[in-house]
Structures are given as C-alpha cells and as structure tokens.
C-alpha cells in the first residue's frame, strides 16, 4: 500500500508539470505580446487622465450639538431624529428658494463652464451634493463636487450655513406648532369644562330641593311639619271646645230680662262676625258673600246712626258679660280659621316635599353623571395645561437657540488634488485593459498556430519515442528578428 501511494505521488506531478511547463513556455515566447499592450494601455490611461476635466470635492463637517440646558430642568419639545431632519433639509436644499440663495451669494450662473440658469444649477447641485451622516459621533459630512476647487468649498460652506439655519427654523416652527396645538386643545377642554360647570350650576339651582344634599333637610322639614300639624289639630280641637262652651253661655237668658235689645244691633254684630270669619278663611273683599255682608253692615250702621266700624251702645237689657262672651267666641273662630289655613299650607308643603324625596334618586343620578364628566374634564384640563407649560418652556429653549443644533466643525477649504479623475485608478484600468488585450492576442496566436513547440507535444501527438531533435535554425533566426523589431517599436 505504501509502494502504491508513492507511485501515485510521483506520477501526478509528472502529469501536471508538462502542462505548467507549456503555459510558462507560452508566456515566455509571447511575453512581448502582453507587455507591449499593457504599456500602451497605461500610457493611454495617463493621457486620458490629463485630457479629462478635473472635478474637485470640498467637504464641510457639521456637528450635531445636544441641548445645552439640562433635560432635567427643561424637557425638549422637538423630538426628531437628526438624521431624519438632515434628510428633510436635503430634500429642500435644491428647491428654487435655496438655490436662489446660493446663486445670490456665489453668482455661479453665467460663469465659464458654469450653470446656465437656476434650473441647471439645481440639477447640478442635486447630482453633486453628498451627505454622509455619522450617528455614532453625532456629525455629518457635506461634500460638494465642482470643476473649480474654490467654488466647491464656497458651495459646501454656503450649504452648511443653510443647513444650520434651516435646522433652527424647522425646530422653532415645530415647537410653535406643537405649542399652538396644545394651547388649542387646552382651550377647547377649558370651554367644555366651563359649559359643564354652567350646566351643573343650572341643574343645582333648578333642583336644589330634590338632591341628596338637601334630602336630610327635606326629611327634617317633613317631620317638623307633621309635628306642627298635630299641634295645630290639637289647638283647633281645644278652640272648638271653648266655642261650644261659649255658645252654651250665650244661650243662657240675660240676668236682667227687663232690658229690651234692638234686633238690628244683633244682626249687625252677626254680620260683622260672619264677615270676619270669611276674611279669616282666605276670602277676598270682592267675593260675593263678603261683598253682600259688607253692604248689609253698611245699611245697618246707617240705620243705627253709627260710623263705619263703630260699636253700638250696649242695650240696657243686655249684660256686659254676654257681649264679652260673643267677642271671645268671634276671636276663637278667627284663630281657628288662621290655624286651618296654616294647616292647609303645611299639608301642601309636606305633599311637595314627599314628591321631592321621590324624585331625589333620579335627579341625583343625573347630577352624578354631570359631576363625573366635570371630574374627567378637570383631569384632562390639568394634563393639557401641564403639557402646555412644558411646551412653552421647550419653545423658549428653541427660541433662544439652546436646543439641539448644528454647528460647523470643519469648514470646507479648496482641495489641492482633484477628486476625479483618479490617476491610480486610471493607471490600473489601463494596465488591466492593455494586459487583457495582450492575453487575448496570445490566445488567438496559440489557437491558430498548429506547430509543435516541444518534444512532449510531439510525443503526445504521435505516441512514438523520439530518437533525435533537429532545431529549426531559420525559424529561430526569424523569431530573433521579430523580437528585435518589437523591442525597437516599444522603446
């Protein structure tokens, strides 16, 4: 097994070496067909480099500086990624407004090889501006490629200034818009809160006695009225008992029967008593019964020769005691009328209070709903007001340029070397193209040349042992002449 592996390792290089030797032989024989095109390609690329228009690239580095005031003291109101903001400004930078600013500052239109108009300038800027952000180190590089190195540097610096200014403008505008929206939201909630409070005040005014806050008072009033009604009923019963006693006393004949009383006096007194009772019961002067008694009293007073309201003289036959009893009875009747009227008022008031107590749960539910809305709006208002105050502080930060901002870290300077064309790249490309052409020519020559170049090729072709090799002197001399000719042409 060992002998077999040794034989294989000897045979394989023997089979590979002839092929490698053949390739090396081709390269040696055809080397000038590769070297000469490669040299020509390099020379042409150098010539093309000097003939091509030069482009210079100037770069300005802009640093993104964070907010100078501590975020613990003032929270920023503008929360936007700097890279997104740079992208937004880049989209605007080739607009007519900013292209006009660049033109007003640098006067590029009409210069030799420069843009013809604003549209041409905008297209050139769009193609020749390059932005490379570096989030890790908080900066971005603004590069401008132009035919003139000084113009390239001027444009880069001018655009950097525009970026800085636009960043401040955008941040301040966003802060003002945010503050405006928050203020509008707070004012809207404030109006809603004012409206709901007005509704609550009106509801409480209209249903003051039908709410839970007045329920205990209603119950106390209801109980007191019931006690008062019972007291009035007892007092009325007491007065009626007294009246019955007085009526019994009036029915007793007078102590002196010889006194003869004028019947008109009794009718006058009775009419006055009935009139007082009706007025005490709530009747008005215009009531027909009261008016009739008033006319009767006036007629009797005229017949008796009495002034209005004057008491007639006590007849000789009527005792003073009887008159006092009659007056006391009339007084008690008036008291009863007053008490009955008061009782009616208390009963009516109790009925109204009972209706209020029945409606209290429904009205309290309605009030609770309004109060819940007010509470929610109050929380929203406080939150909106807090956000507005934060926004005012954030807007002040942006107004005084204390927020996140752009600053030029390295200003662009006119470059000394062109960015394009690249000499090394041109030489490499010329070498690659020339060498490729040379290799292609060598391959073509080898394909069309059917002669045997070595003993190995001949032995492999005829499969016979070669006894001797006679050199081709004529062809060798021709190859030497060809080599000298190529050398003179190349050098």
In short:
The protein is α+β, with helices and mostly antiparallel strands. Helix content is 70%, strand content 6%. It has a four-stranded antiparallel beta sheet.
Helix content: over 70%
Describe the largest sheet: 4 strands, antiparallel
The overall strand count is 4
Quaternary: single chain
The SSE order reads HHEHHHEEHHHHHEHHH
The CATH architecture assignment of the largest domain turns out to be 2-Layer Sandwich
Strand content: 5-15%
N-C termini distance: 59 Å
Number of helices: 13
Explain the layout of strands and helices.
Blueprint: H1 2-29, H2 31-51, E1 56-65, H3 82-93, H4 96-106, H5 118-128, E2 129-134, E3 139-146, H6 149-206, H7 215-251, H8 263-280, H9 288-304, H10 320-399, E4 405-410, H11 423-448, H12 455-462, H13 473-490
Antiparallel strand pairs: 1-3, 1-4, 2-3
Helix pairs in contact: 2-11, 3-6, 4-5, 4-6, 6-10, 7-10, 8-9, 8-10
